[in-house]
């Protein structure tokens, strides 16, 4: 894939001045080798309007935005591109209130829908499983864990975490909402995100029993939850960072229904934290935006909290 993206915001603003600039860019990203009919795969077309292509074989008429997250966009593509830029290029992203104000959008709901759509673009189908030494654990969001260690806490959101350790440094991260802390939830999570045969470090929780069948399983035993910092230092650090973002940005008023999307966005940023080119993050999200089937507003299910 040809890497073509503005390196910074100045370049972005210079490049995308009019609707046509956005259409041209979408065309080059969606059809890098030339037009391909999404219906029948035919490469030849008639251009019937500024952004309408009619397949010479099956006669289907498509726009460069058909079947992308920009599908049926009622707002200008320039606004969409700007939203995508802020979402992907800025280190801490942008929330719906800020996006509404920055773009002068009429409603909070529109900004919210756009951000939800962009969040669905942060998980890449070709991403590689974690390898090497991986710490795994689970944590709670939506209230402090009280009393001594117990993994019930039914009213809180439970999240499984796995993070690579490279010496003292952290590598890549995965986060997933789980129903409970049983092995029926934890083992599939680790298997889905860590290459089999890797070294997986957990605490002594019985939910991790059975990991030794697919991994080198190292348990760090500790009798007290307070010692988590020394038991699984990588996990401890990640969890405090995630809590700060999720609880700070949303003041803890997040809706559990959408938590996985926020976690996905967090993981996307975390795994690219050392990438010096903000435009590359923009480009990666754009790749997904033109290749993933779009979700309708109904599927996104707007809620105010
Ligand atoms: Zn066709």
Topology, element by element:
Elements: H1 9-15, H2 19-30, E1 45-49, E2 52-55, E3 61-62, H3 77-89, H4 96-103, H5 108-119, E4 133-141, E5 157-166, E6 169-178, H6 183-193, E7 199-202, E8 216-219, H7 228-231, H8 233-249, H9 259-271, H10 278-289, H11 297-300
Parallel strand pairs: 4-7, 7-8
Antiparallel strand pairs: 1-2, 2-3, 4-5, 5-6
Helix pairs in contact: 3-10, 4-5
Zinc ion binds at residues 37, 39-40, 42, 55, 57-58, 60.
Gyration radius, in Å = 22 Å
Distance linking N and C termini: 39 Å
Please give the number of β-strands.
8
**Strand order of the main beta sheet, please?**
6-5-4-7-8
H/E order of the elements?
Answer: HHEEEHHHEEEHEEHHHHH
Largest beta sheet, briefly? Answer: 5 strands, mixed
Helix content: 25-40%
Question: What ligand molecules are bound, each kind once?
Answer: zinc ion
The pLDDT mean sits at 87
Number of domains: 2
Strand content: 15-25%
Structural class: alpha/beta
Principal-axis shape equals elongated
- Work out the helix count: 11
Q: Low-confidence parts, pLDDT < 50 over ≥5 residues?
A: 145-150
